[in-house]
Every structure is written in structure tokens, then in C-alpha cells.
Design goal:
The complex is a heterodimer of chains A (about 475) and B (about 90). Chain A is an alpha/beta fold and about 475 residues long. Helices cover about 60% and strands about 5% of the residues of chain A. Chain A has three domains: about 1-85; about 90-285, no CATH class; about 290-475, TPP-binding domain (Rossmann fold, 3-Layer(aba) Sandwich). Chain A is built from 18 helices and six strands. A six-stranded parallel β-sheet of chain A has the order 3-2-1-4-5-6. Chain A is elongated and about 80 Å long. Chain B is mostly helical. Chain B is about 80% helix and about 0% strand. In chain B, helix 2 runs antiparallel to helix 4 and helix 3 (about 45-55) runs antiparallel to helix 4. The radius of gyration of chain B is 17 Å and the shape is flat. The chains are: A alpha/beta (about 475), B mainly alpha (about 90). Chains A and B meet through helix 1, helix 2, helix 3, helix 4 and helix 8 of A and helix 1, helix 2, helix 3 and helix 4 of B.
Chain lengths: ~475, ~90
């Protein structure tokens, strides 16, 4: 017996999947421009609807109630989370959703194995191999994403820790997972009797991979989260694609692979923007203890402090202003105050742009998303390569909540941990205002000679409060 | 479908993905990620089949959990991207 439209030839199902695949690809193509991106997202979701609807109608559904309940529960939770999320909580939510996708892939592969075993059909090698891969990637994605989301939400400590014990656990759990997978492939019926039905070797793999996922992400620091989130994104796609191999489902393979490619490209972009290898981000951990003495040397007597009034005077005579936001702006939720300042400056004929470093924030494009929320037009947001040549013609640069991404040491000191990292050369501007709560180092743990430069003034304070104060002072003096 | 046919599909999709994604501007990387994220919830198809037709209680239960998780991923992912993209198009015209 088959589903509602299951009597039709198999080609119909495959054709519907082809359409869904085309919609996914077209949806992504529309994402290449902000004007068409909303439509693209809609097209992509239509593809998903087609794929799910056809699947539900096609296959024999023994327990429609169970299925309907699951869809309702999942849809409800997803919609609820999406509606109530604050823009500042976006990175952890994206991470969380990601994890669910990966987890679902691992569970589906497991359920398929259980099902095949129960129906007495035996487990073909093609199925066990791909199920093992889906289980491994899916479980790592699920637990890794939960930890990443926890770190971003402040539930798990976000400082980088690299210990030998941690590396040991990773190696042991990886070997255990591989052993589980190997057993599944070579000798699926290793355990006889009642236990065989639940395919124990697969679950050994899942548990080991889960522990591995946790220990992979726990040691990684908060500022490296853009890489981790992008990588886990890629994993969840790959998990879906391998599940497609298990189930012989074409659209799963196509869509999963698209996501895998997308996540991987973002990961590579993030790593290149820090001039670090993926291995270094995942397993390195930055050393940061020895530098504190230089810091005093560099800063001693060279720091000039400024006030909102003084910044306002600089802005009054400026023709071109560039704002460089960082994670501090996100934490303080200063984007609206910043946007208001930009609007005021523009009304007075000042040319204002944003210089956005690729790894500013906690996920790829984080600053852009925050500024878009505050109604900043996207053509004002400039990438590093575009904005760097313009700093020498810029009167005032306001750095708010950023540190390492404007550290000139990346260009000048080969021994520094950020050597070779592309940075925003804000020091070339006539005046630099650095809005920061204190002189404390950024994620890399090194001092920033920019702060001690003659043309730099420190505007100490929380990003939101400082920017709001600046807006008020600017308004009064008009 | 044979393994080789599936592999063909996998490799070709990877190339298509690479070509498209590299053209997406930094501005849109966050919505891209959450949108791609929603697409990865396509594993929902597999969950639907297993949950609906699982021959044992265990398979059905696993399928149920998988459907819930995948649907959260799909619905939440698309909605979040939609809200974000709306903010991009509001003023950038």
C-alpha cells in the first residue's frame, strides 16, 4: 500500500523533487542582491513546501496523527522562537536551529537503520556507510551547536581554553565513534538477540560523536564563533546530504550539498579574514598571558581621553566620517544610537560610511544585520578592501566596540598573534575616536598601539550610552 | 538510484553551490546563513517518511523527534531570514 498519490509512477515523485531543487537553487541565486533576497527566501521556502507536501502525500503514512502532531509542535516552536528573538540574540538562535537540523539527520539515519533491521531486510553496505557518516556529522553538529549557542548566550564560559586532556578526549571519542561506525558497516549484527533490533553500534557512534561535538566547541573562544557557526552550518548541510544517500533521496542530496558548500565558503572567508587556518581556530586557542607588560609601556603617557563635546567639535568640521563597529556595539545594542548619529551627520552634508571587518561580531555578516535592523541602508556598509584606501581622505573615524580588527600590529609586528590578519587601517585618518569601555585588550589579548597614536583619542564608555550622549550633544549644538 | 548516481548529484550540486554562494555579498551573509540553515532542515523529508511509516515503536519515536527538530529548523530558519531580509530591503532602495 502506498500514500495518497503513491499510485502514480515514481517519475512523478522525482520530478517534484527536481522542482524543489530548482526552487532552492533559484532562491539562493536571488540572495546575491539585497533587493531580491526577500523573494529568494520565499522561493526557497516554497521549494521546501513542495518537497514536504509531495513526500507526505506520496509515502505510506501509517500514523498520520503522529506526523501531524510532530509537524505542529516543531512548526510552533520554530515560529515562536523566530518571532520573539531580539536581533542581538540572532547568532545563538541561528546556531540553535542549525543544531536541530543536524540532530534530525542523525536521528533519521538511526530510525532508518532500526526500521530496516526490524523488517528483516538486512543492512546494505551503502546504507550503513552513509548512515554512519550522517550519525557522526549530525551528532557533532547538534551538540557542537548547542555549546556554541550556549557560549553566545552567556550560559557557557566563552574564553578559549586549550588543554591536553581536552585533546585526549577528542581523540578517544573520535576513535570510539569510528569504531562504532566500522562495526556497523562490517558486522551490523554483532550483538545478537533483542539488542540487535536497535542497532547498538550506531548508538555507540552517536554517543561518542555527541561527546566529541561538545569537546570540540567548548575550548573555542567567543570571538572565533563566526568560524564555528559557519562550519557547523556546513556540517548540518552535509549531514542532510548524507542522509539523502541513506534514503536514496535526490532533493536531500542537492539541498544538503548546497548548504554544505555555503557553510564551507563562509568558513573559509572567516578564516582568511583572520589569517588563521581552520585547524588553528578549532584546535589552537590563543595564548594571551605574557603581553601585559608591553601594554603598560605602549599606553603609558600616550593615551589622550576625549569627551562627547570634543568629538562633536571634530564632527562639526568633518567632510567624511567612517564608523567602524565591533562586537561591543552588538553587546551594548548601540546600533540605533549609531544609526541616529549617521542620520544627523548626513542631514548636515557629511559623507558617512561604515567600515565593516568580516569577522566583527559573532557570526558572518553580524554587523550588517544589526545595522540593517537600525535602518541603515546597505550601500553605506563598506567591506574592508573597499574602505581601506579611503581612510587617508577621511576626517574622523569612530571605532565603537571594536579592537583587534583595527590593531595596526597585524601589519607591523610579525611575532604578534594577529600578524598578517587584514585589518582596517583607521590610523591613516586625520582623527580617530575609539569608543571603548576601558583599555582592556580584545580577544587576541594583545595591546593596541592605535590607542596610543597622536591622532587617536579614547572616548571611554559603554557603546550605547556614549553614542547616545554624542547624538544629544550633536543635536544641541546644531 | 545507485551510489554513483547519488555521488554525481552531490558533486554537481557542490559546484552549483560554490558558484552561487561566492557571489553573495558580505552584507547578506547572516541572512544567507539562516536561510541555508533552513534549507538544511530538508532532512525533514527523511524524518517524515520514517515517522509516518516506522514499523517499530522505536523507529516511530525516533522519527517523531526528528520531525520536530527538523520542522523547528525549517520554520524558524525561514522566518528569521525573512524578518532580517525585510530590514535590508526597507531602506536600501
Amino acid at each position: 500500500m502506498a500514500g495518497v498519490i503513491g499510485g502514480l509512477p515514481d517519475a512523478v515523485l522525482q520530478f517534484a523533487y527536481l522542482i524543489a531543487g530548482i526552487l532552492f537553487i533559484q532562491g539562493l541565486r536571488d540572495m546575491t542582491h539585497p533587493r531580491t533576497a526577500t523573494r529568494g527566501n520565499g522561493i526557497s521556502s516554497l521549494g521546501m513546501f513542495v518537497a514536504v507536501a509531495v513526500t507526505v502525500l506520496w509515502f505510506e503514512i501509517l500514523s498520520p496523527l503522529v506526523l501531524a502532531a510532530a509537524l505542529l509542535v516543531g512548526g510552533g516552536i520554530g515560529a515562536w522562537l523566530a518571532v520573539r528573538v531580539e536581533t542581538t540574540e540572532m547568532p545563538q538562535l541561528v546556531g540553535l536551529f542549525n543544531g536541530f537540523g543536524g540532530g534530525a539527520s542523525a536521528l533519521v539515519a538511526g530510525a532508518e537503520l532500526v526500521d530496516l533491521t526490524a523488517s528483516g531486510g538486512g543492512l546494505p553496505v551503502g546504507v550503513t556507510v552513509t548512515a554512519a557518516i550522517a550519525g557522526l556529522i549530525g551528532s557533532v553538529t547538534f551538540w557542537g551547536s548547542l555549546v556554541a549557542a550556549g557560549k553566545l548566550h552567556g550560559l557557557v564560559g566563552d574564553s578559549p581554553v586549550s588543554t591536553n586532556a581536552g585533546h585526549g578526549i577528542k581523540v578517544v571519542t573520535l576513535l570510539l565513534a569510528l569504531a562504532g561506525g566500522g562495526t556497523l558497516v562490517v558486522q551490523p549484527g554483532l550483538v545478537g538477540g533483542g539488542l540487535a533490533e536497535i542497532v547498538p553500534s550506531y548508538w555507540v557512534l552517536v554517543v561518542a560523536a555527541s561527546v566529541l561535538g561538545v569537546f570540540l566547541v567548548v575550548p573555542i573562544g567567543g570571538a572565533d564563533m563566526p568560524v564555528v557557526i559557519a562550519l557547523l552550518n556546513s556540517y548540518s548541510g552535509l549531514a542532510a546530504a548524507t542522509t539523502g544517500f541513506v534514503l536514496d533521496n535526490t532533493v536531500l542530496i542537492v539541498a544538503g550539498t548546497l548548504v554544505g558548500a555555503s557553510g564551507l565558503i563562509l568558513t573559509v572567508i572567516m578564516c582568511e579574514s583572520m589569517n588563521r587556518s581552520l585547524v588553528n581556530v578549532l584546535f589552537g586557542g590563543l595564548g594571551s598571558d605574557e603581553e601585559s607588560e608591553d601594554m603598560a609601556d605602549i599606553y603609558e603617557g600616550n593615551i589622550s581621553e576625549t569627551s562627547a563635546e570634543e568629538v562633536e567639535m571634530l564632527l562639526d568640521v568633518a567632510d567624511r566620517v567612517v564608523i567602524v563597529p565591533g562586537y561591543g556595539m552588538a553587546v551594548a545594542q548601540a546600533q540605533h544610537a549609531v544609526a541616529e548619529l549617521v542620520e544627523l551627520l548626513e542631514e548636515d552634508g557629511v559623507d558617512v560610511e561604515f567600515g565593516i571587518h568580516p569577522v566583527a561580531g559573532r557570526m558572518p555578516g553580524h554587523m550588517n544585520a544589526l545595522l540593517a535592523e537600525a535602518d541603515v541602508p546597505y550601500d553605506k556598509m563598506r567591506e574592508l578592501e573597499e574602505v581601506n584606501p579611503t581612510f587617508s581622505q577621511t576626517d574622523v573615524v569612530i571605532v565603537t566596540g571594536a579592537n583587534d580588527v583595527v590593531n595596526p600590529m597585524a601589519n607591523t609586528d610579525d611575532s604578534s598573534p594577529i600578524a598578517g590578519m587584514p585589518v582596517l587601517n583607521v590610523g591613516e585618518a586625520r582623527s580617530v575616536i575609539v569608543n571603548k569601555r576601558s583599555l582592556s585588550p580584545g580577544f587576541s589579548g594583545i595591546p593596541n598601539p592605535l590607542f596610543a597614536q597622536d591622532n587617536t583619542s579614547m572616548f571611554f564608555g559603554d557603546a550605547k550610552a556614549s553614542m547616545q550622549e554624542l547624538v544629544n550633544v550633536y543635536k544641541e549644538s546644531r | 538510484m545507485t551510489l554513483v548516481q547519488n555521488l554525481t548529484l552531490f558533486v554537481l550540486s557542490a559546484f552549483v553551490g560554490y558558484e552561487i554562494i561566492t557571489k553573495i555579498p558580505t552584507n547578506l551573509h547572516t541572512p544567507l546563513m539562516s536561510g541555508a540553515n533552513a534549507i538544511s532542515g530538508v532532512t525533514l523529508l527523511g524524518s517524515v517518511v520514517v515517522a509516518g511509516s516506522g514499523s517499530t515503536l522505536l523507529a516511530t519515536a525516533l522519527g517523531f523527534a526528528a520531525v520536530v527538530m527538523a520542522t523547528i529548523n525549517v520554520v524558524g530558519g525561514y522566518l528569521v531570514s525573512h524578518f532580517m531580509l525585510d530590514q535590508f530591503s526597507q531602506r536600501g532602495k
